[in-house]
């Protein structure tokens, strides 16, 4: 026995989830029916360190791991009535809660800082209805119309756009081919896209 | 009828928590619609959860006052089942969504009418890519494209084809840079799909390539 670690803890460590499933299911029932704190502390004592190990492996970050432990066990405390012993063991139930919270956490973390959809280029390709139920059928742009608008571009811009976006060349390749400076290719591209956007905006 | 399911490997990574989280949401929706995969997932969860929690923590961690602060929280309100689940509305039609998507109805932006008889509504699910509902009206089509990254699609209601296959409600479709396709729906009722992409599409044919400068805006 290691000094400083209570015997109770030592014994608990070696108990496998499936060996204490009935006991933990009973505790969860007590929490659900009576908000029993003693029962919850048993659940917490067993699962918190295990959740932490799992979370640490997944996140590699102590603070995130502790957050996952806290969120998961808060769910267990608050939603113990949703546990159904006939559908699975406490460890499976708690594991799926932790995993789903982990996926939510990851999506929040990765949420991109700038939302490109919100910028002013969005109206180029669509008409956004103010009211989801309101449909403006006439506002639709077809690929044919896009082709017509493209044909209306000034010749010099059209050549650049065609080479880059239809033939798939790089701006440098286009500059070499047309024997013009790269900066000119870039500015023609920018002007053409800007013009295309304007034409699409007032095509009706 | 559902013909296309996540692979065994994809179900495994979904269950053990190591899947890319946007794709995990699409898998969760498929599993909600597919009894076959649901049974597999439940089986996997039994094994994986016991293994995940078998680990004996060697260090003695202090959880401080975590337990006390949790027990200070009130119990969740008993779930009041709404008369009907929240639905997605478009043009007078209501679509029932797979359960994992219902909490995102509130986070769905307005529908936009795109070229080609398409409707698109962005969904803010977080994550590093883009999630959206796409509705193809009868005859609606997405221009031919390939993918700079991964495109994961779930058919929610209706049927569509893309030159590579024909898809029905519940089908799970994962595409990447190896696939070039042209989704279109010829179903009278059109087709609603939920799709996540981690990188913009790349349009591959004719005039649609002009969309590429704007392709990060949709799909
Ligand atoms: Zn399936």
TrEMBL record, chain A:
Residue ranges of the RNA polymerase sigma-70 region domain? 46-111
Q: Where does the source fall among the domains of life?
A: Bacteria
InterPro entries registered for this protein in UniProt: RNA_pol_sigma-70-like, RNA_pol_sigma-70_dom, RNA_pol_sigma70_r2, RNA_pol_sigma70_r4_t2, RNA_pol_sigma_r2, RNA_pol_sigma_r3/r4-like, WH-like_DNA-bd_sf
Ranges of residues in domain RNA polymerase sigma factor 70 region 4 type: 144-196
SUPFAM superfamilies attached to this UniProt entry = Sigma2 domain of RNA polymerase sigma factors, Sigma3 and sigma4 domains of RNA polymerase sigma factors
Q: What UniProt keywords apply to this chain's record, in alphabetical order?
A: Sigma factor, Transcription, Transcription regulation
A Pfam family per the record: Sigma70_r2
Query: What's this protein's family per the entry?
Result: Belongs to the sigma-70 factor family. ECF subfamily.
This chain belongs to which protein, by name? Sigma-70 family RNA polymerase sigma factor
From TrEMBL, chain B:
Taxonomic lineage is:
Bacteria, Pseudomonadati, Pseudomonadota, Gammaproteobacteria, Alteromonadales
Q: Could you tell me which SUPFAM superfamilies the record lists for this protein?
A: RmlC-like cupins
**What CDD domains would the database entry show?**
cupin_ChrR
Output the InterPro entries linked to this UniProt entry.
Anti-sigma_ChrR, Anti_sigma_zinc_sf, ChrR-like_cupin_dom, RmlC-like_jellyroll, RmlC_Cupin_sf
Origin species, per record, is Fluctibacter halophilus
Domain of life the protein comes from: Bacteria
Q: Name one Pfam family in it.
A: Cupin_7
Looking at the record, the residues that make up the ChrR-like cupin domain are 127-195
What name has this protein been given in UniProt?
ChrR family anti-sigma-E factor
């Amino acid at each position: 026995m290691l000094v400083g670690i209570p015997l109770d803890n030592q014994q608990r460590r070696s108990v496998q989830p499936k060996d204490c499933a009935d006991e933990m299911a009973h505790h969860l029932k007590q929490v659900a029916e009576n908000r029993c704190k003693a029962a919850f502390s048993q659940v917490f004592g067993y699962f918190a360190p295990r959740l932490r190990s799992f979370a640490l492996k997944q996140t590699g970050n102590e603070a995130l791991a502790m957050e996952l432990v806290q969120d998961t066990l808060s769910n267990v405390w608050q939603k113990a009535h949703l546990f159904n012993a006939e559908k699975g063991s406490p460890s499976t139930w708690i594991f799926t809660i932790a995993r789903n919270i982990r996926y939510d956490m990851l999506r929040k973390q990765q949420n991109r800082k700038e939302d490109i959809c919100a910028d002013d280029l969005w109206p180029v390709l669509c008409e956004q209805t103010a009211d989801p139920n309101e449909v403006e059928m006439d506002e639709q742009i077809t690929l044919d119309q896009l082709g017509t608008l493209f044909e209306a571009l000034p010749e010099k811009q059209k050549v650049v756009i065609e080479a880059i976006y239809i033939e798939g060349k790089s701006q440098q390749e286009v500059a070499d081919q047309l024997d013009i400076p790269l900066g000119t290719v870039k500015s023609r591209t920018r002007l053409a896209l800007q013009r295309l956007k304007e034409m699409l905006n007032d095509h009706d | 009828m559902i013909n296309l399911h996540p692979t065994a490997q994809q179900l495994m990574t979904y269950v053990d928590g190591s899947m890319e989280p946007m794709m995990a949401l699409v898998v969760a929706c498929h599993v909600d619609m597919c009894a076959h995969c649901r049974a597999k997932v439940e089986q996997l969860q039994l094994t994986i959860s016991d293994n995940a929690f078998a680990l004996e923590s060697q260090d003695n961690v202090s959880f401080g006052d975590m337990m006390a602060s949790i027990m200070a929280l009130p119990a969740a309100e008993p779930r009041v089942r709404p008369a009907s689940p929240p639905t997605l509305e478009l043009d007078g039609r209501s679509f029932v969504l797979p359960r994992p998507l219902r909490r995102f109805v509130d986070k769905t932006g307005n529908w936009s009418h795109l070229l080609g008889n398409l409707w698109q509504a962005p969904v803010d699910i977080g994550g590093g890519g883009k999630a959206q509902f796409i509705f193809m009206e009868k005859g609606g089509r997405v221009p031919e494209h390939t993918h700079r990254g991964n495109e994961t699609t779930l058919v929610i209601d209706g049927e569509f084809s893309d030159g590579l296959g024909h898809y029905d409600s519940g089908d799970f479709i994962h595409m990447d840079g190896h696939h070039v396709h042209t989704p279109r729906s010829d179903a009278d009722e059109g087709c609603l799909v939920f799709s996540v992409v981690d990188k913009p599409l790349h349009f591959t044919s004719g005039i649609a390539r002009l969309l590429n400068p704007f392709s990060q805006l949709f799909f």
